[in-house]
Amino acid sequence: MAGSLVACGGGGSNSGGGGPIGGNPTPTPTPTPPPSSSECSLPARQDFVRAVLDEWYLFPDLLDTSVNQGNYNDLQSYIDALVAPARAQSKDRFFTYITSIAEEEAYYNSGSNAGFGIRLGYDTGSNRVFVIEGFEDGPGLPQGLDRGVELLAVGPTASSMQDIATLMATGGPQAVIEALGPSDPGVQRVFRIRELGGTERQVTVTKAEYPLDPVSDRYGAKIIDDGGKKVGYVNLRTFIGPAETDLREAFDDFRAQGVNEVIVDFRYNGGGLVRIAELMGDLMGRAYVGQVFSHTTLRPSKSDRNETDLFGSQSQAIAPTKIAFIGTGGTASASELVTNAFIPYLDTNMALVGTNTYGKPVGQYGFDHPEEECDLRLRAVTFKTENADRQGEYYTGLASVVPVTCRASDDISTQLGDPAESSIAQALAFLRGGAGVCSPISGRDATAMRRDPTSRAITARREVLQPARPTPAQRETPGLF
């Protein structure tokens, strides 16, 4: 499968989820520069944005051309006003935005970012914040910040810690985000935490630069023995360049061991590079080589850039007869692209397990400001993606188009990759018994969060903790800190 030339972008600002769909982290189209684009002043940057959107935006009829740039004192607010009509129709939920060229390329090329190396979620009913994933190369995991741990208090020092419950009650999730500090190496925070067994203790963690491993060495790829049947399990955190080697190795192992049923865990995957999504399709599409994986369609004036991508041949590929895709509200973009691509071929032999996904069947090109010192890239919604049946209208999530859905909770008291974890257990049940063992996902079903009964069991709605203006890493890996 040839790699798409479109560039990757992201979504999710103010959204609690969502991510990019793209191909190469460098921008491919060259926007027509406006006369004032030779400087980095706000008016010049606004002119740059307007020129790009006028030429490339996927929904030209949904641009508010009456917006007066003089009424806005920051660039993102101006962009939000321009695309507000598309947002009102759920077609551009903060998917068009500005970002740093340097930060974005560092992330997509190597997973480089700075932070504690943890993913956080919060319970909307009882104002509690939990670690829902710990990353192996980050500074938090060695201090015990791993899946299921609850954050009780945080502060720069032990004497200045604030209770999480108080922060949530007075300022909501954003107050917790601010208390965690900026995403800069050297920022230190003291936490009071409660472990799964109920033990409370204090830990100190300093933010650092670390590479994010897209497929965990602990649980990212494994074979589950389900009553003598070998089931392949792969948990892809994000679609970045380093995922290629990990995915090839995982599916080569599946092929060698005769795996023909697979669980693909996308539960927190906010998206990423289209070329990695296409590779993942190839690795599960040995039976469909030469057939349509996806259609990419731009606005009518840019139809010369439309593409049809076909399943390609990969030596590590398998031909699964059944696939269970695990998703949540944090599953978006490239994750949804891969899932949607298999509907025409597997039909009821595939299922969406967990809760409904975010709903992002569109993608972005990247447009760099002509002045390098501006370090400004505009990610603009420029194309939509559809499967072989031309199905791509899942703006409210994949539960509306996947033939079989199986509702399941995200059990943070059990590690990812464990067959006893609720969503994985339901995926295994589907692979054994089909749709008859499933309770369908309804609409935008909330993610359920469960805790060990010894630690005040709860079942409540949970969202990933996401800044209003996420970094490139946070766009693709929702809840990352």
Summarize the structure.
By secondary structure, the protein is an alpha+beta fold. Helix content is 22%, strand content 25%.
Can you walk me through this structure?
There is one protein chain. The protein is α+β, with helices and mostly antiparallel strands and 481 residues long. Helices cover 22% and strands 25% of the residues. The chain is built from 11 helices and 23 strands. It has helices at 42-56, 75-82, 84-88, 101-110, 164-180, 243-256, 274-283, 334-341, 343-346, 422-433, 472-476; strands at residues 21-22, 97-99, 112-115, 118-123, 128-134, 150-155, 162-163, 188-194, 200-206, 208-211, 221-226, 229-235, 261-265, 272-273, 292-298, 307-310, 322-327, 350-354, 362-368, 377-386, 405-407, 447-450, 459-464. The strands form 5 sheets. Strands 4, 5, 6, 7, 8, 9, 22 and 23 form an 8-stranded antiparallel β-sheet that branches. It has a 6-stranded mixed β-sheet with strand order 11-12-13-17-18-21, with helices on both faces. Strands 2, 15, 16, 19 and 20 form a 5-stranded antiparallel β-sheet that branches. Strand 8 and strand 9 form a beta hairpin. It starts with 20 loop residues before the first strand and ends in a 5-residue tail after the last helix.
